Amino acid sequence: MPEDVSALQLVLTADPALGAIVRVSLVVSVSAVFFAALIGLPLGAWVALIRFPGRGAVIVALNALMGLPPVVVGLAVYLLLSRSGPLGRWGLLFTSQAMIIAQTILIAPIIAALARQTIEDLWVEYRDELAAMDVGAVGRVITLVWDARFSLVTALLAGFGRAAAEVGAVIIVGGNIDGFTRTMTTAIALETSKGDLQLAIGLGMVLIAIVVAVNAAAWGVRRAGEHLAG
Amino acid sequence: MRAPVSELPIVFDDTSVLAGSVTILDRITLTLAPGAPTVLIGPNGAGKTTLLRLAMGLIQPTRGRVTWGGRSQVALTHRAIVFQRPVMLRRGAAGNIRYALATAGLARSKRDARVDELLALVGLAGLGARPARKLSGGEQQRLALARALARDPQVLLLDEPTASLDPAATNAVEDVIRAVTGRGIKVVMATHDLGEAKRLAGEIVLLHRGRVIESGSAAAFFSAPTTNEAGRFLAGELLM
């Protein structure tokens, strides 16, 4: 198919426009995963280890938030950051930072919910041993997060997958501005609507390749880590 | 021999443990004194594991009280326990011991030497880098012993440490227990194996349905049990 060949050439010749879009996408997605991990991992560990009134409701809420509609998050962040919004003076609307904020809100619950399950499962195994070694609450969290680190990679991957594939929130708060806030997903949507299928297909190929490569690398790291750590 | 221990004697004073309406331990009055190993024997469900957890301070009695060296609130610093199915942390054999040393507060600079010493004590020298979960059952049991000893305990509680091990692995674990006893550490262990109890025990406690049926020196227990239940248990009859 001629369109496929053109798309492939676009990728193979490292088209500058395509490169800029890929760069913005990666910066936004990886940053969002980083910040969501900073929030989600301790939150997941806390919910896994601490018994408190309403814990069941928090778990249900975390699990439900995994299905948070991106456009709703985009709208909420838009209202917060818009000129008349409470955070409008920050001037972040239609910037990469706004996209990172929206994606962080989207994927932090995913990472927290998956981390909670992983850490709680390990806690069931470790509870007696750590109690016998008189390990305090902070030490337990650190130990469990560290020992579950290879399993937690799955939670981070789920977050990255959601961020990389997401279009609704970033197009609302980023504005899809060429060279600044245009990501692979928003560009695919735009180019498809314009009928420029070569670029859309090329971007789709790159997006899939990145997701596969990240997952393959994470799988390799996890296998190696489990082999070494047991 | 080490200095006189402060954790001993461990005294159970009319101690009961209930789980809901089920009585796990029923008015236990018992003293675990310094000296040769005390071995807890009895059928499944007799309360051996619960008694060990109580001695460790991991659970609270429903009634009565437990004291360690005359005190009722003592930190876990000088007690250690090896569970029947010890869980290896997801790190190497040496890493498991190093973790226990860290929790015990040993200075970082002294940990490597202590790890080597403990691995040698339990016959695992050279296996420090091996992932703990990939060791054999017997090796994991010995590593669990080393990890418990890393806390420099005065009392070591062992819950069926040789259950499901083959004779060679059992012998290796028993050698470690003798070595530990020789260092002045009080060993309190539960076992189903009467032969093992004969080989290791200085004192026997026979439990049945949460009660102490008979306790005293191992020699006297095995030669002339004083209760009907003890006689039947030694004769190999099932205590129901």
CATH topology of the domain at 10-87 and 152-234 in chain B: Rossmann fold
What summary fits the major beta sheet of chain B? Answer: 6 strands, mixed
What low-confidence regions of chain B span 5 or more consecutive residues with pLDDT below 50? 1-5
| Approximate strand percentage of chain B | 15-25%
Largest sheet of chain A: none
**Can you tell me the number of structural domains of chain A?**
1
CATH topology (fold) name of chain A: MetI-like fold
Order of helices and strands of chain A: HHHHHHHHHH
The gross shape of chain A turns out to be globular
Residue share in helices of chain A?
over 70%
What's the β-strand tally of chain A? 0
Topology:
The complex is a heterodimer of chains A (230) and B (240).
Chain A: H1 2-12, H2 16-49, H3 55-65, H4 70-81, H5 96-132, H6 137-147, H7 149-165, H8 168-174, H9 184-194, H10 197-229
Helix pairs in contact in A: 1-10, 2-5, 2-6, 2-7, 3-5, 4-5, 4-8, 5-6, 5-7, 5-8, 7-10, 9-10
Chain B: E1 10-19, E2 22-32, E3 38-41, H1 48-56, E4 63-68, E5 79-82, H2 93-103, H3 108-121, H4 137-149, E6 155-159, H5 167-182, E7 186-190, H6 194-200, E8 203-208, E9 211-217, H7 218-223, H8 228-234
Parallel strand pairs in B: 3-7, 3-8, 5-6, 6-7
Antiparallel strand pairs in B: 1-2, 1-4, 8-9
Describe this structure in words.
The complex is a heterodimer of chains A (230) and B (240). Chain A has 230 residues and is mainly α. Chain A has a single domain (2-229), classed as MetI-like (MetI-like fold). Chain A is 80% helix and 0% strand. Chain A has helices at residues 2-12, 16-49, 55-65, 70-81, 96-132, 137-147, 149-165, 168-174, 184-194, 197-229. In chain A, α1 (2-12) packs across α10 (197-229) and α9 (184-194) packs antiparallel against α10 (197-229). With 240 residues, chain B is α/β, with parallel strands linked by helices. Chain B has a domain at 10-87 and 152-234: 3-Layer(aba) Sandwich (Rossmann fold), CATH 3.40.50.300. Helix content of chain B is 35%, strand content 24%. Chain B has helices spanning 48-56, 93-103, 108-121, 137-149, 167-182, 194-200, 218-223, 228-234; strands at 10-19, 22-32, 38-41, 63-68, 79-82, 155-159, 186-190, 203-208, 211-217. In chain B, the strands form two sheets. In chain B, strands 5-6-7-3-8-9 form a six-stranded mixed beta sheet, sandwiched between helices. In chain B, α5 links the parallel β6 and β7. In chain B, α2 (93-103) packs across α3. Residues 1-5 of chain B have low confidence and may be disordered.
